[in-house]
Every structure is written in C-alpha cells, then in structure tokens.
Amino acid sequence: MARRMPPVNVVLVGFGWTASIIAQELTDAGAQVLALERGAWRDTVPDFATDHIQDELRYAVRKQIFEAPERETLTFRNNAGQTALPMRHLGSFLPAAGVGGAGVHWNGQCWRFLPQDFVVRSHTEQRYGKSFIPQDMNLQDWGVTYEELEPHYDSFEYLCGISGLAGNVKGQLIEGGNPFEGPRQRGYPLPPLERSASTVLFDKAARAVGFKPFPCPAANASRPYRNPLGVQMGQCTYCGYCEWFGCGNYSKASPQTTILPVLLKKDNFRFRTHCNVTRVNTDSTGRRATGVTYVDVDGNQIEQPADMVVLCAFAQHNVHLLLLSKIGQPYDPAANSGVVGRNYAYQITSAVDVFQKERLNPFMGAGALGQAIDEFNGDNFDHGPHGFIGGGYVALWNTGGRPILQHYLPEHAPKWGAGWKQAMHEHYLTACSIATHGSVMSYRSSYLDLDPTWRDAYGNPLLRLTFDFQPNEHRMSDFLTGQAAKIGRAIPGASVHVRKRQGPYSIVPYQTTHNTGGAAMGSDPRTSFVNRYLQSWGVPNLWVMGSAVFPQNPGYNPTGTIGALTYWSAQAMKRYLKNPGALVPT
Amino acid sequence: MSTPYGSRAMPLAKAAAFLCCAAVAVALCAGCTHDRDVAAAAAVKLGERMSPGPYGDIARGRYLVRAGDCEACHTAPGGVPFAGDRAVPTPFGTIYSTNITPDPETGIGRWTGADFYRAMHEGIDRLGRHLYPAFPYPWYTRLSRDDVLSIKAYLDTLAPVRQPTRSNDLPWPLDRRGVMAVWNGLYFKDGTYRYDPKRSAQWNRGAYLVKGVGHCGACHSDKNLAGATDPSDPLTGGFGENAYAPSLAGGTRDGLGGWSAQDIAQYLGTGHNSLSAAAGPMAEVVERSTQYMSEADRQAVAVYLKSLPAPKEASLAGIDRSTLDRGAALYVDHCAGCHLAEGQGEQGAFPPLRRNSAVQASSADTLIGVILQGARIPATRGDATGLVMQGFADRLDDAQIADLTTYIRNAWGNRAEAVDADHVEDLRRTLRKSPGG
Predict the structure, then answer these.
(1) Of A274, A322, A290, A260, whose CA–CA distance to A19 is shortest?
(2) Over the stretch A431-457, which tens digit does the pLDDT of each residue have?
(3) Which tens digits make up the pLDDT trace of B299-332?
(4) How many CB pairs under 8 A join A and B?
(5) Which CATH number fits the domain B321-433, given the four candidates 3.20.20.150, 1.10.760.10, 3.40.47.10, 1.20.140.10?
(6) Cα A555 to Cα A348: distance, rounded to the nearest angstrom
(7) Distance in Å, alpha carbon of A227 to nearest chain B alpha carbon
(8) Residues of B near A (CB-CB distance < 8 A)?
(9) What is the predicted ipTM?
(10) A336, CA 20 to 30 Å: which among A155, A378, B92, B300?
(11) By three-state DSSP, how is residue A76 classified?
C-alpha cells in the first residue's frame, strides 16, 4: 500500500526547464509547489566543474548525464507492420535525468518559431489550397498565435541572457539579423557571441550565394549577465563543451544558472530527487487529478496528493504517464481518433561537410555559436513548385572540435590506421560542416502507444514509438540540403561531401533530441489533449508542459518555444489558481 | 611564520610556558582595579533606542545579534541555532561554544541582565568563572549596556533548547579558567566605547560597530603569541579560521586604500564589488551578518575603515622569472576562463585578481585556500546566485599551486611575497584536518 505524503497545492512531475519556470511563477503567486525528479540533484560546482566536465569519453560517449535505458526506455518500430523492440542504448535522441533536465546538457540554440508556424494549417490552406496537404498528414494549428506568445518569448530570452542580433524589432528590420523572424518587442539581452573562423567562412559564402546570414541566437552568454531574477551568469569561454555537458562557467542558460538560486530559497517550494512518477491519480469521475504516485529509489510506492498536477517531464515521458494513468483517449491510427499519443513528430537533419584550406581552430566553439540562413524555413519561400510542406534553417554551428566525435573527414578517407591518422592530421583544423535542421509534420502513421510486450523496471508497459520519415520530409530535407551544398561550394577552394538524410528513420545514430507531440495543444478537443493554455481538456487540474504539446515540429530547435509556452501557460495557471475550472469551454 | 594562528600554530607547550610566566607577572599587580567606566557609557550617543519599550529592545537585539554573527559560533553544524556546541578551533586547543538559548539548565535562562552584561563586558560568566577570549569579549566590552541588554532581550525570545556545553579540549594550564584572569590582566582592558567628539557621528558609529559588536579585529588584527590582539586593534590583517583576513587599513596594494567607502559598503552588503569578492570565512560573515546591516551602518563602517592609516610597506624580494613563467602557464590553463587573461575578472560575475587587495595580502593563505578548496561568493538578498569556484586540490600539486599563487600575486601590477611549495603542503594538510576543510 502506498505511503501518503501531506498534500501540496501543485505537484510538478520532473524538475527541468518547464518545472523550474512554473515553480518560480506559481510560488510567486503564493502556491505551495513540490517538484518530483527521477534523477539526482546537480549543480554547476561540483557536478559540472571545469576541472572535469570537458571529458568527452565520460559524457558524450558513455552518456553519463542522460537517462538510463536500463531504468526507462521505449520500444521502437518504423511502422505498424513491424514488431517494436526496446531501445537498449541511447542513440537518436538523448533525454536527460536529473535536476535541470536537458536544460543542463543542451547546446543553447534558442529560437523563436515563425508566426506562420503556429497557424500552419490555415496558412497552408489559404496560400496553397486544401489539396496541397497530404491526406495522412495531421497538420494542425496550435490554438495560440505568435503575437500572444511574443511577451513570453521575451521573458524566456531575458531569463536566459540570449546572445544574438534581432532582425525585426516591432516591424523594423535590422541589418545583420534574421529578416524572416516575427517582430519582437526589443533586441536580445546580449550581443552575439564572437565569431569563429568557420562561421565567418559560412557568412561570406552565404552572402555570395545571395542569402542573408545572421548570428544564431545563443543561450551561451557573450557577456557577464544578470537576469531579471537577479541571477548572475559569467561569459562563455568558448571551450566547446556545451552539448551533452553541463557548463562549468555559469555561461550556458539552464535552470541552475537562471532560476534555481532564487527558487530554492523560497519557503513554499520543495523538491525531491530519485522519485519516479508512475501514475497521475484521478478521482472516481476521472475529471479531477488527485495527485501522483511515485516510486522512490528504495522501491517504495508513495502517493503525493495535490490540487493541481503539471507534467514537466521529457516529451514522450509525459505521454507515457498519461497512457499509464489512463487519462484521455489513446490515439487510434486506424480511425485517426483519440488524442494521447497522436501527433508524434521529430526533425530531419542532414549535413554538408566542407574541406578547404583555411585554418579554423574548430575546438574554439560554443553550443550555439553559429551563423544561419532562414530563407527556407517555414513558409519563407514559395512551396508551390516544390510540392512539400515545411522547411528548416541552414547553419554552420561551431559547437566545438572534440577529439572523439567532432571531426569531419572526406568521404573516402580511410576509416582506421595510419591513413586515418594522416587524414585527420590534414583536415582536423580546416574542415567544417554545414547543417540543415528541418521540420517534420505529424502523420497518422507516427504515434506513441503502450507496448504490448515489453515492460520497464517498475513492471509498467514501455512506451512504443512508431515513426518514420515520410516522402514530404525527405523532399523537404533534400531541397534544404541542396541549398546547404550551394553555400558549401561557394567557400573558396572547398570540396564538399553532401550527406543527405536517406532511407527510413533509424533510432541508432544521434540526430536530435527534438521529439515532439503525443499530447498536442489546440482548439479542438478531438485533435488535441490540452487547450491553448496547456490545460487538459478532460481533467482541468492537469497540465502538460514541453514539446509533447507541439502539434507538429517546425524547423527550429524547440527550447525557445517551450520556454515561451511555459510562461504563457504559467500566466493562465495563475488565473486558474484564483478561479479553478476549464479556461476554455468545451 | 609570524603569527600563531593558521597552519603554523605556536606549539602548545610553548604557549603554556608563556602563559605561566605571564601568570607570575600578573600576580604582582593583583588587586589592580579595572577601569569600569560605566559613566562613560552615558556619553555614548550611539546606543539610542530605535523605539522605546520591550519590542524595540528585541528588534535592536536581533539586529545586533546578526551584526555580531553570534549564531556562527553558537551553532553546531546542523544544530539548533544558538544552542552552542560548535567546536571552535584555536591554536591552543578546541573550545566548544555555549548554549545561549534561554534554557534554565544548559543555557542562559537563569541569567539576569547584570550577569549577561558582566559576561559581555568582562568575560566572566554567571558563576564568576572566566570565559576564554574565543568568545570575543575584548570587543564586546565596548558595547553600551543598553545594546547588551537588547541582545539579551532578543536571546530571551528564542525557544529554550537543552544542550549541555561540552568541556573544552585544552591542555594544562589553559584548562584552568583562572589562567584567564592573568591573560586579562595582561591583555584585556574593559570599557565601553568612548565617543570621539573630534570625529563625525557617522565615524563614531562605524568605529563602535567595528571595534564592538562586529569584532572585526578578531580576525583582521594580528595576534601575539598568547592570542591577544594589539589593544589599538589596527586591523592591518591577521589570521582566523585557517585563512588570512586581509588588512582593512589604508594602503592601496594590500589594504582598502584603493576602495571607496561605497565599495566597502557594497562588499558588506553583497560580498562583492568591482574590486574583490568575499571568500572563505568572510563569505559566511557577509551571508549571515553584514548583508543584514542597515545601509547607514554599512556606510558608517566604511567611513571608519577609510580613516585607518596605511601601515608601512614592507620591502619585497624579487621573484624568479621561471617561477612566474610556470605560474603564468598554469593561470592560462586553470584560471583565465573566468578571471580572464589580464586578471580583470568579469564585472558582475567573477572577481578580478588584478589589484585585488586580498590577493596581495601579506599572507597568501586565503588565496592558496581558495585555490585548494574553491570558494563561493555569498548568496545574499541582493545577489541570490552564490557563484561557486571549484577547488583545485586534486588537480594541482603543491609546487604548481605555489607557482600559480606567486604568479597571481605578482602579475598585472600586483606585488606580494612569493609562496613556496612547503608552505602550500602545510596549508593543504591543515585545511584537510579542519572542520569543513
């Protein structure tokens, strides 16, 4: 029998970015908030201290700060005709475990989505007609607009101390920034990071081709920063160990470096680590969440009652929890009905490796040190002749030059031995790579459900992921890769190796940790699990944060939008706390 | 090696012998009356009540208890605040702090105001026994009676906690409290603060806080072999809790000569300013004590400290070029990421090392301690972050730390004595043994 803890106003499942923001906002509003984290407590010093964090073998290869698949994983198949098997090693994506979540190990690439991204269905129908949308594509509007989210993007960017150059302030285009971005109320809090040699190469080549490159917005502080909560950050040292590492210099925005120093001092906030939430409990009507049940590290089952439950875990874990808790209608792909597990999407990436003569010193990098073009993102170009929906950015990221995994060799270079060493010697300092980062739409054939066979350490069915790249995505990605190749070839003296994304999706090689959907937001309860405020339609005291609410996955890294949606939702929660009930009538 | 505090404590036998001789000397002047100039207290214009009545006393007492950071010594790690039982290491042995909650058996529940005043003013407890000056009565004696009684009024509001005081771990003859009568005869002069009419009220308030409840000199003034501070309390630097508390006197290199009064006030409020950041024991002092002082009091302290004269500069020996080269290379690898190439630090984040007076202090022990153990900028009401530097004890050996310390103390216009590896080795061993080290 589960032990019962004293009730709290709000229980948060997970203690990463979204939980930290919600906790900060709701404790300010006077609520008693408790966060339950499955992983460990960790902080800049000692956990990410610079005397040991730059250890590629330990963190990038052996994946020390990510979730452990032996405790929690999912099964995978490309389509419903296959039998899914468990993912026994992390590969394609890397969810975190531990306080700060993936906010600890991200690169800091912090974008806003385009205004059209939030109304992609109505926009596409209006511009290209209904028949332009493939039959099996569950293309959906978000139920919230860019204009509504703008102040909340601003809050997140100022929380994090984003370094960048605005392209559009209140409709005024600014030379050197991204001319395609939605209007913002003010510029970024910090100037862009210093350029590296490779981003300068990219910039020149992209201009030569006729594009408008701009510095990528970075949650790596270009200067010392004090955010609106009074929390201080130090400036980035360009050590090149952002992605998959914690930052030892207080330079990369994370919950630890932006919120926790203030939040943890509040009397009305508590957190517990090593608590794996396995159920959201509901009352007999099924319309009210009564709290959660979790398993502690000793295997004890513990019930935590709460007036309000907010799911703040990684995208698919939130969906897994809903399915295990039998909340909401599970998605049925045959009937295209039900909402939990619906709209799973990912992103599609490719690269163009560039081999040239100028010395680039790639090891001097930062997770979001990059130069990009946005001509081919969203609907920034006419899709009519191309026959696909979606797009992405093309960027040269100089995230680092780590010795084991971050180097580029020509296609036919030897893979081992003296020949490999010779090729490495020749190219390490001069090679670079241009990346494409493309959208993935939602389809009837891409979804999450419970696996009929495999169970986790707690005896619960594993989540099952059914996903493949569709022809629309391959066409889009090939097109984007072609644009990247144009830029690569415009670099003086360059030979390029074009690495298109080919064939079915594989869960083995790392691609991106931008998994989305499964509990989509929207304005129709038949196609979304949460309303535009991220409040569950069916259980109004249950809320879902994070990218699980994305109806499809646009062509940018998601964290900026997750931050904005969280602030947006937090304001709605404050209204809810004063007057509980559904914020959108059904 | 010039002072008994810190790693190179005077051997106990020597200390004991010294005190025995002192005992003889004092016996000769037995019967000397101490200057109990109670009348002078009336002249002190500094203890005006914040508001009349008991609540005013309690509020003022609470303020003074924080300003004096009583809780720091009177609370065991993880223990109930003010219940005592914290081991206070001294060069002579370990002294355990007492329970100052109002428990009648084990605390100060049976103490009258007069008892409490005598303890604060003369260093003698309710039963007439001498207290050891680890309890800083040589400073508290300067407090006005009103202030002392306010402190008692606040302590009386605490929940009584039963926590017997442990026997001190002191060698003979120091375990005899009577020895302290001798010590007092030699080194202690009671008497409340005397207002200096030639100075401003602000200066007097600052002096009263620094020399009284703040007991700054307990760390920041040098001590003699018997652990006693020069009666003039020069604040030219001294050892405390295995760290060197740098000079607070004038002097642009290793004192506060280069600091403005505003810099000092800001430092007391937040633990850092554009010139330096608190590390080691001072970080705790800011976190628990000075950040809660009123802005007016911080300014007053600043005005007083700015009036202290610069001591005479000692001449410094030249430093070997190869040491500096080795130190510079280590600096680039381990320090420059945050403190930047020219030691300029990052304004608003990491402290500068260039022209940092604590870095150039006459003893390098605080800097070495920071390199070995790391440091944390205080988390205060104004600055919640509490930026932390990791220690390098596992990363750098004694010779490397010596070279690095010497380099930092002599780069970018800094100038201070070199450090050798043996000294680092000594300090490493002491810090490893010390509580929390």
Answers:
(1) A260
(2) 999 999 999 999 999 999 999 999 998
(3) 999 999 999 999 888 888 899 999 999 999 999 9
(4) 59
(5) 1.10.760.10
(6) 9
(7) 11
(8) 334, 337-338, 346-350, 374, 379, 382-390, 392, 394-395
(9) 0.88
(10) A378
(11) strand
